[in-house]
Design a protein that fits this description.
Length: 746
């Protein structure tokens, strides 16, 4: 059988004009012949004692008869109130029927005055002219609304004490984002005997499964909301021979997140590796050396997978996120995997993408990199602001490439919406120069330097406000969390000063994160001409961000922990509509994966319909371009092939490829072999100048007794002699071709 995973999750989001208050609605009203309380038009006033009726309200011609005569005199002013619960709308417009004049308030703020004089309006104020059911239309600024309950209040005035009628009716229209109808298609495969988690349930048999999930909903934020997406979560393993190469942007982070106190940060697609099967490494600051550790049950993950990436898109949409702000890297960099997966996703456009430029090639690569970047600007899935492609450029890149923005604009052939992005919180010192550098807006990458989450929130607010006086726009940032502690255990880039990774902020509470989101919404919605989009740090910087938005792996259940997704959804979206996700699952029997050396090649057994990927067993990393059934290594080593049949992957046993040239004879190899440390306290290392294949060895004590035997098949080999008693020993390689004396001194 073969397997196909089809996960449906479409998003088609658009604006529609919605009638929030139709003509003929029910209103509370007060007609008592005197002024209403001073707070009558605010939420602090209770209208429980007021009368209620359906508009058109008033008395006289063409109105529902509601007598308003008190003590034999006509009531000059009648008061109307209505409470509506909405999200912050946009493009709001009002149509009224008024006889004779009116003042309209929303949440206590006057938004329109018709046929009444300027200045203070009293209960006794008469209209200067007579009108007969006059149609009144006007627009309302979105900033006067709040998310939740809103008070609409209208006072209607007469033209004369002996007026024969009064009329009132009211209609409110606005643009809101309706519930979304969404589909994300995920194609993946599983092998017989394995399972696929869908909606919190593991499925291992073929069939069609459905899961009703809540998504869509009206948005509370009036601007596109993005998240910074980093891409270090691909497949990489430790090379014991050279631990510093483990810090390739994935291996070191996996190592750091394998420690028990940080496992809760691991990606939702992470899995534990059984004890003592793969080593991990960390930098020992006390000894200034690498420690190779087999004892920790390490985590492994490979986010370079279309099904996983598409699941991330589904999670982001569910949270109310509009776009990924992806850190852009060249195609030949492993950190470009995420960008490539977005490009190949059938769901791009459901969620949009914009680029953060923090690296760019030099020389001829500079222009080709720019050409590749701007080629995506015209794509329908690329995030636009006012029709212009959105692009973030970090401060460091601008410093090294001062013409980068103008070069991008020239290559694109038109304007872009550019955001200047300092990498740390010294941004305010850069604000005065943003416009002179040609940027539309200012932003910052993350909020550092704080010791509490409350201070992070305070810093964010202050930095946003510090940008307001300048002519540029503001792209406000929300830093969900920041903690670099995990990097101290396995730092990227090799040995470092531990103080560089000492930043630690205690995890934010749900209440703190909710306050942050509310603050962001209020800031954005109240400044529509200054704020065009917003950004959050971070989606998936698990090791540095600490508490990220993308789901992590629950350490108890092993299932995705969607707590932050649900929290953001509850704050960014209103009540939502249900949508059904469909899983079509079939199962494929595992293919046979065998690799054999044939001459100077390594050949995989043929499997009809399968694809191949060769890997280096020493590092467990994939070999670029090695995707056919035949592989010719360029260096000696240990290699295996991954056979992929419809998503069911099986890895062959490793094959030791050791084709030595004439000058690399065994004697020459042995003459350059290193033995260390000598004396040793428990571990004895043998380092060959090249990879060897099944070289036999034996260890004897001073009496000639054989203590240990085995074979070497790696460039660096480690022998555990911790059980040896103190004394002198001899190691013999290939029946005495080389013999070395060493001492054990514990």
């Amino acid at each position: 059988m073969k397997t196909t995973l089809l996960l449906l999750f479409i998003s088609i989001i658009g604006f529609s004009q919605t009638t929030l208050i139709p003509l003929g609605s029910s209103w509370k009203y007060l007609s008592q012949g005197s002024a209403a309380p001073t707070n009558w038009n605010t939420s602090s006033f209770s209208d429980a004692a007021w009368s209620a009726g359906n508009a058109q309200l008033g008395f006289g011609d063409e109105a529902t008869v509601t007598p308003q005569v008190v003590s034999g005199s006509t009531v000059i002013t009648t008061y109307f109130r209505k409470t509506i619960s909405i999200v912050t709308p946009s493009n709001c417009s009002v149509s009224m029927v008024i006889d004779d004049g009116s003042v309209v308030y929303i949440n206590g703020v006057e938004v329109n005055r018709f046929n009444l004089p300027t200045g203070t309006i009293l209960y006794s104020t008469l209209t200067p002219t007579f009108t007969e059911n006059a149609p009144v239309t006007f627009t309302v600024p979105a900033s006067v609304f709040i998310s939740g309950s809103n008070i609409i209040a209208v006072e209607v005035h007469q033209n004369a004490l002996n007026s024969s009628d009064v009329s009132f009716d009211f209609k409110l229209l606005a643009d809101i984002i309706p519930c979304s109808s969404s589909t994300v298609t995920i194609n993946a495969g599983i092998c017989t005997g394995s399972s696929y988690n869908f909606g919190g349930t593991n499925y291992s048999t073929a069939g069609t499964y459905s899961n009703v999930v809540s998504k869509g909903g009206a948005k509370k934020l009036n601007v596109p909301f993005g998240v910074i997406r980093w891409d270090a979560w691909y497949d990489s393993y430790l090379n014991v021979a050279n631990p510093s190469t483990y810090n390739d942007g994935s291996g070191s982070y996996r190592s750091a997140l394998s420690f028990p106190q940080f496992k809760e940060r691991a990606p939702f697609f992470a899995n534990p590796v059984p004890y003592n099967t793969k080593p991990m490494a960390y930098w020992n600051t006390a000894t200034s050396s690498w420690v190779i550790d087999y004892r920790v049950n390490r985590m492994q993950w490979n986010g370079n997978n279309q099904a996983i990436y598409d699941q991330e898109i589904a999670y982001a949409i569910h949270a109310g996120i509009d776009y990924f702000a992806t850190l852009w890297y060249r195609d030949d960099a492993p950190l470009s995997y995420g960008r490539k997966l977005f490009a190949t996703s059938t769901n791009k456009g459901t969620l949009k993408e914009a680029y953060i430029i923090e690296s760019i090639g030099g020389g001829a690569s500079y222009n080709s990199d720019i050409a590749q970047i701007v080629a995506d600007f015209a794509q329908p899935w690329y995030q636009k602001i006012g029709g212009l492609p959105l692009i973030f450029i970090t401060e460091g890149i601008v410093s090294g490439n001062p013409t980068l923005l103008t070069d991008i604009i020239a290559a694109y052939g038109g304007p872009v919406y550019s955001v200047y992005q300092p990498i740390i919180t010294d941004g305010p010192t850069s604000w005065p120069t943003i416009s002179s550098k040609g940027f539309n807006s200012g932003n910052w990458y993350s909020t550092w330097g704080s010791t509490t989450h409350a201070s992070i929130m305070s810093d964010e607010i202050n930095i946003r406000r510090s940008l307001l006086p300048y002519s540029c726009d503001v792209v406000p940032l929300l830093t969900v969390s920041f903690s670099q502690q995990a990097r101290r255990y396995s730092p990227p880039g090799g040995p470092i000063n531990p103080s560089l990774y000492s930043a630690f902020v205690p995890r934010a509470t749900d209440s703190e994160n909710e306050q942050q989101i509310d603050s962001l919404i209020d800031f954005c919605n109240s400044r529509p001409t200054k704020v065009k989009c917003a950004l959050a740090y971070a989606w998936n910087e698990y090791d540095e961000g600490g508490r990220v938005i993308c789901p992590t792996r629950d350490t108890t259940t092993g299932l995705p922990n969607t707590h932050m997704i649900d929290l953001f959804r509850s704050k960014l979206l209103t009540s939502s509509c249900d949508s059904t996700t469909i899983l079509n699952l079939t199962v494929t029997s595992p293919p046979i994966a065998i690799a054999n050396i044939t001459g100077s090649n390594i050949v995989a057994n043929p499997v009809l319909g399968a694809t191949y990927q060769w890997i280096n067993c020493a590092t467990s990393s994939t070999i670029l371009g090695a995707t056919s059934s035949t592989f010719t290594p360029t260096v000696n080593g240990s290699y295996a092939v991954i056979v992929n049949l419809n998503g069911c992957k099986v890895t062959s046993s490793c094959v030791n490829y050791n084709v030595l040239s004439d000058f690399e004879s065994l004697n020459n190899v042995l003459s350059e072999t290193l033995f260390y440390p000598n004396p040793t306290e428990g571990v004895f290392n043998i380092k060959f100048p090249t990879l060897v294949n099944n070289l036999s060895y034996s260890i004897k004590n001073i009496l000639g007794q054989t203590i240990k035997e085995g074979v070497f098949s790696n460039e660096i080999n480690t022998i555990d002699v911790s059980s040896f008693t103190n004394g002198t020993y001899f190691i013999s390689i290939e029946s005495g071709r080389l013999m070395v004396r060493f001492n054990v001194n514990k």
